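From the methods appendix. Each design record in this collection lists the tokenized structure first, followed by the designed amino acid sequence. Records were kept in a plain field format so they could be parsed without special tools. The example shown here is representative of the layout used throughout.

RECORD:
FOLD TOKENS (314 positions):
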């Protein structure tokens, strides 16, 4: 790890325009520094900034950039209005990392391409014009959409896929003012020589806004295919939601993960679903049996655990 200067921003104004790498949860940045991929000369700590709130916003939610992944996943409003977002968060990383990782940091995390993470391998993301070692290499987890001859890496976030599906907007503060960018367009696709940065110098993510989900809150899911059932990045994933009225789909959202340098909105598939009859029959909820978890102290009262009834003592 290289030598660096550490400073803490006490106000958003101090963080905006600061010369250095932004440090939030640090779960990605510090890893990259340890292996020599990221070599900032200065870290600007923003963990003390008042960006940890989750607020109601025009029927949707406004999520502060410093809200932890764990807090966001268990917020009752997320569970009720955006269940696919909660599922995406819980499908990623580990409980320890979710406690530390921030919403803004999740959006800004770097690709997990093994060639990007090897300082000895030419990589256009690290040095524009140096080449892409992944092309012609091992590409099991690389892009199949939106790639170029300069880069075939994918964006690793689960959360961003769900945010893109439900039209989230990234709120950014910078030296020249504020701007808003739809999540589905926030991460640049590779051009002829590399991948442009998502943020300009001195910019900081302050919030992510999710609009009113309307009738999609009840019919929304996040699914993920990976090599193991936990602590693994997606080979491919999808966040989907539909609004059903009178037995037919009247609105649909679909985004794919693990296939491109950004969450990939499948607009053609969404349009094809409109007007289609509901193709499924809702399954009844499992019965709520009063039960005791095995080996639970006898002095503690029984509790309901319908979600894991097969492992309960009834």
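DESIGN:
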């Amino acid at each position: 790890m290289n030598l660096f200067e550490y400073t803490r921003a006490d106000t958003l104004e101090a963080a905006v325009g600061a010369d250095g790498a932004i440090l939030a949860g640090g779960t990605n940045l510090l890893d990259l520094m340890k292996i020599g991929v990221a070599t900032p000369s200065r870290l600007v700590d923003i963990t003390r900034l008042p960006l940890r709130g989750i607020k109601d916003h025009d029927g949707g939610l406004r999520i502060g950039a410093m809200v932890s992944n764990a807090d966001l996943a268990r917020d009752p409003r997320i569970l009720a209005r955006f269940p696919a977002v909660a599922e995406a968060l819980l499908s990623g990383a580990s409980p320890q990392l979710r406690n530390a990782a921030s919403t803004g940091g999740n959006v800004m995390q770097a690709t997990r391409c093994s060639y990007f993470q090897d300082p000895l391998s030419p990589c256009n993301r690290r040095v524009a014009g140096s080449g892409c070692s992944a092309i012609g290499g091992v590409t099991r987890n690389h892009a199949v959409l939106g790639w170029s001859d300069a880069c075939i890496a994918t964006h690793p976030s689960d959360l961003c896929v769900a945010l893109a599906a439900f039209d989230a907007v990234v709120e950014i503060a910078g030296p020249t003012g504020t701007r808003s960018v739809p999540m589905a367009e926030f991460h640049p696709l590779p051009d002829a020589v590399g991948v442009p940065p998502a943020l300009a110098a001195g910019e900081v993510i302050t919030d992510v806004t999710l609009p009113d989900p309307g009738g999609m809150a009840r019919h929304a899911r996040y699914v993920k295919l990976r090599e193991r059932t936990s602590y693994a990045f997606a080979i491919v994933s999808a966040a989907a939601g539909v609004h059903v009225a009178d037995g037919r789909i009247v609105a649909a959202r679909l985004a794919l993960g693990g296939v491109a340098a950004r969450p990939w909105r499948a607009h053609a598939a969404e349009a094809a679903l409109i007007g289609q009859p509901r193709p499924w029959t809702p399954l009844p909820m499992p019965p709520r049996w009063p039960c005791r978890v095995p080996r639970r102290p006898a002095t503690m009262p029984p509790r309901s655990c319908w979600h894991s009834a097969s492992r309960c003592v009834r």
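APPENDIX NOTE: DSSP finds ten helices and 14 strands in the chain.
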